[in-house]
Please model this.
Amino acid sequence: MNIYAVIFYVLGAVILGATALAITRRNLMHAIVYLVFSFIGTALLFYLLGAPFLAVLEVVIYAGAIMVLFLFIVMMLKSEPDHLTLGLRLRQWLPALALSGISLIVMTVFVLQAAGGSGPLPLVMASPLEFGRFLFQKYWLGVEIASFLLFVALVGALYLGRADGKTGS
Amino acid sequence: MTAILLILLLFPLTGGVLNAVVGRLLPRRASEVIACLGVLGALGMAVIALILGGRDTYHLTFFPWIKVGDLSAAMDVYYDPLAAVMILMVTFVSSLIHLYSVAFMRDDRDYVRYFCYLNLFVFAMLVITLADNLLFVYLGWEGMGFCSYALIGFWYQDEVNANAGRKAFICTRIGDVSFSIALAFCFVLLHSFSISQINAQASSLSPYLATLLSLLLLGAAVGKSAQLPLTVWLPDAMAGPTPVSALIHAATMVTAGTFLLMRLFPVVQMSPTAMLVMAGVGAVTTLYAGAAALAQWDIKRMLAYSTISQVGYLFLAVGAGDIVGGTFHLVSHAFFKALLFLAAGCVIQALAEEHNIFRMGNLRRLMPQVYWLFLAGAVSLSAFPLLGGYFSKDRILLATFMHPELAYKVLWFIAVVAAFLTPLYTFRVFFVAFSKRADGRRAADIHPIPKFMAAVLWPLAILALGDGLLNLPGGIGKNFLGNFLAMVPGARPDLGASSALEWSMGIFSAFLVIASLILAYFLYSYRPAREPAMVGLHKMLCSAFYLDNLYRLIFVKPYQAMAGFLWRDVDNRYDRGLVKGAKALFRPYRAMAVFLWLKIDEICLNEGAMKAAGGLKVLSSGLGRWTSGRLSTYLTMLFLGLAIFFGVLALGYPW
Amino acid sequence: MVTIVPYSHVLILAASLFVLGAGCAIARRNLIMILIGVEIMLNAAGLACIGAAMRWQQLDGQAFVIFIMAVAASEVGVGLSLIVYSQRRTGTLDADRYDLMKG
Model:
């Protein structure tokens, strides 16, 4: 149990807590902000697990672009609050809780049973240079396809988001 | 020879397919030309085959078709003199009818469909004529049934026509069921579908089996040839265009049944019982249809009943064992009946779709060419001495009379009565429609018809009048057809009658016909006939002894009642739901409990039922929420699936 | 060699995160919250991949996370524009109102 393990567990707790808070907020903006916290924690976790480049990307893309986009949309759309009365709350969450609980338990049991997962992980850091080289050597096709995918998404979003009333259908 | 016969079959098939596929894209003339070439080409091939083949019998194979284990059916051809005669007759009459149709359908927009089906019909008929394999025959049989359905119901926009087509199809279908049973029997008993093989093995059949098989084949023939008890479709089939009636109901389809029996004559021969039944069916139908024809006011219906009657003669011929006579009369009938139908078509078109003979009249003056043509056909049909059908009908009567069994004498008598009726009903229509009447048609009523329509009929008229020459009982052309068909199994070119018998029969028939003609003249021409009221005897004859109504009572009404009951019942059940069903089941029990037990039990049961119903309702509404269409539901189900998946994995995991 | 937690712990953390995201996607009725649930799930998957990269000392896991992020970004872009579009069409973001497929 060294310092890194401690940091890991603390970060894990932060992430889980922030996410749990995020998903139970009625106010969308609050939820999103909590989620931003969660993603920042995840970024730190990525750095801890030896992926500094990805940690930065997590902050930039996830927390920075995606969550900000969410914020913009939430601010743009007038959405009525989730109609939750106290009585309904449990019934709304019950299936989720039940299924989540079952899945989590089963997954945990699996993971713990699996061989080769028990030894502590060696901590190494993958520098961005190495990572970049690796990515563009082995997965260059994937990168190209991902860029194409982003382009398609851009076109789709542009088309769907046209405000002149002639959208779609 | 194989090539010639193959091309013969391919001509109409190609014509039909071409018309079906590209007919609409071509100009009208091109489509008509394709159709006519389809049959004219077949006619040419038939003539060539006749010249090359002569009197020989050929067994050829087109194509090995089915081979599954024991069952092997190939597209075999059995070309013998009988087939040669049939093919020649079919292609010749079809060609004339196609040419006539070009003029007849000149104003119809659906001509492509018409010619396509007409060609396909000829193809199917030629398949039946040529086929050596019963499955191949069945192919043509069914094809003919379908094409006749399509052609009878050609103007399907009018429900009457569509119903007529359906009726024809269903009635012939009943015959087809009989045919398929016969096919199954053939295979089981004789291990072969090939006609030549079946004929060769025919002598090995026991009389019972031969009777059974023959009766099944008779059932098939009765359906196709509209004999009793399946006559009902033919009069209604007059809803189709007149050339269709001419082709199907004069020359081809109605003769297909007889042809089948003639082909399988060695089998039929083995069973005197079946032959008697066949002859009996033929004779009774002849009289029945002849009587019915006497009361018809629709010219086409009269011709339809006349067809039924004449085909009855064919059955009588086969039943009496005379294939030559049957073929002879078949060919004669094709000529004069087609002529009569086509001439009637000219009249009908000229009078703007008028079918009722009592609204015609004066047509001798107004349409002289058609008058003479119709007269030629009528005279031939009546078996006027020395013309047309006289020799063929006479031969059949002779064959029936000469048969050793006593029953056949009775049948002969029935056939003679029918022979008396034939000129009567024919000339009834002739006189009423064509002769001079005060209330007849005037020149202004006649719509001009193309001269071509009538011109095409002259070859038929000449043939109808002169076809007695094909098989004269004596003199120069003695037994020409009979000798030609000598090699056909079962054919007897010469009946072996004594000269005295032949002469006396001939004179007797002639006398009969002339007497009938005089009677017809007095009844219908001496004083202009008025349309009789539809009561009593007249109504019974006109509706063909109420056979249609009988069938409607026995078959149609119960079926409709049952169908109505089923859909109403089923509909009701679905409408009210399962709860009502449970409640309905429960009600008598509850009544019994109330009656039998005290209040406590009553309350208990009542409450229980309510709770059960309520529970069912909750269950159903709970289950109903599965199809709520809500996104969250579906997502939940997704996750549930995942959880189940995990669970299954967990169960299967080697702990 | 410096070590850190076993891989199973990373996986358990990722699993919990995944389950949280799934619960959010199921239990919430606002369309945007459902999408957020999806994002959480994707993030959890990325976490698992990073852990795997460390476990097997190969960079493929990290490369995969890049692709996960790319896909998540494009999916969010299109998804949000769809949400905006459907908000314009039907006037509501309540998932329960989108029940045209009912019955």
